[in-house]
Amino acid sequence: MEKVALLECAVYEVDQIEKTLREGFELLGGDSFLRRLIPAGSSVLLKPNLLSVVEKGSTVITHFAVFEAVVRILGEYSGNISFGDSPGQEDTRVAAEKSGLMEVAKRYGVQFCDFNEAVHCKLESPLMYKYWNIARGPYEADVVITLPKLKTHAMMYYTGAVKNQFGCIPGSQKAQWHTKLPDSASFAKMLLDLNSVVKTNFAILDGIIAMEGNGPRNGTPKQMNTIIMGESLTAVDSTAVRLIGYKDVLAVPVLKAAQAANWGTVLPEEIEVLGRSIEEMKCRDFKLSRNAKVINFLTPGLTSLVSTMTAPDPVLVEEKCIGCRKCQEACPEKARVISFIRHNGKVIPKWNYSNCIRCFCCQELCPKGAIITRDKALSRLLGLN
Predict the structure, then answer these.
(1) What InterPro entries is this protein classified in (predicted)?
(2) Which CATH number is 377's domain given?
């Protein structure tokens, strides 16, 4: 039985978050648990979510107060703590400074780790890929602790403990993975392999204020008062998706892939939730990005085909568009999918949906929230939304 700590914390106040996290560690085994997690002399890398350069305290990224509370506790077990990430299009250092994480790091002697330098490595017994280019920092750290935000995600439905490590792939190389793996099922398997390469050891999920709707960048803040902690990334994510309204955790691609591959603990009956209960912490009106049901047809090929045919489309909210062209810059397929036309006196993007791979990088990285997702008629007909 895998254990996760489900905790209640309503404010981004460092002392209160630290108190809550210490309660969580006590539930998981206290000092002896932490000494096992972080053996003496270990280097520890913290992997926050720094999706983009946004204002301090933004729901898009890991909150600086959560980061500080984690650093305070882990500083009692390691004198060698670093942190880093690799946003898809923007400079990590600028993102870290803008977010407030860099200021915290400097006060506590935490080193900034640039994820631009990659190492080539090999994964034995992969689900999909044996050879990888991974940021040197997380690959060489003794202990990797991921600090994700609880958010919706247009392609993967939800982003949390497993998905957060996609930032361990240096910058522009992320686009290559989207081109190579345009469907959510294959992308999910890749994420599991990635976490095996990085050897992510522990997750602390920031859901004090989560993001619903048009996530992972342009959704709506949602007060959830939640922190979830655990060694099993899939158990943490399974607990989180139940809180936001997924009755069947296997509806979420990464959890479905993990269960099929016996990669981590996924099913609720195999997870012991310590602290608060799912029922008392569940959000009854959380707006999901994709409220899909599990699709299972006679053959994997047919299942994949129907999944592709029912995937939503990225669409433009024209009045919000500023014509910055970041959608095309973010698109792995570039002009093959997104071109620009003049309409109502301004230049706006237009999608060639026959070439679109539905990775939703355009939607994810639009700075103005001008791109949303729209369900297809077939999806509505099949009751998959």
Answers:
(1) 4Fe4S_Fe-S-bd, 4Fe4S_Fe_S_CS, DUF362, PSI_iron-sulfur_center
(2) 3.30.70.20
Flag whether 289 is in a domain. Answer: no
**The pTM of the whole model exceeds 0.70:** yes
> Count of domains in the chain?
2
The answer to the question of residue 290 being in a domain is: no
- Please write down the long-range contacts of 197-201, taking CB distance under 8 Å and 24 or more positions apart: 197/121, 197/123, 197/132, 197/134, 197/139, 198/134, 198/138, 198/139, 198/144, 198/165, 198/168, 199/144, 200/47, 200/144, 200/145, 200/146, 200/161, 200/165, 200/233, 201/37, 201/143, 201/144, 201/145, 201/231
Residues 191-240 have pLDDT tens digits of 999 999 999 999 999 999 999 999 999 999 999 999 999 999 999 999 99
Which residue range is the domain that position 371 belongs to? 300-381
Counts of helices then strands in the chain (DSSP H, E): 15, 16
Of the three residues 220, 250, 281, the one that is the final residue of a domain is 281
CA distance linking residue 169 with residue 85, whole number of Å: 9
Same domain, 314 and 273: no
Pairing of strands 81-83, 111-112: parallel
AA letter at 46: L
pLDDT-derived band of residue 294, with 50, 70 and 90 as boundaries?
very low
Q: What are 243's two structure tokens? A: 């809180």
Q: How far apart are CA 340 and CA 328, in angstroms?
A: 9
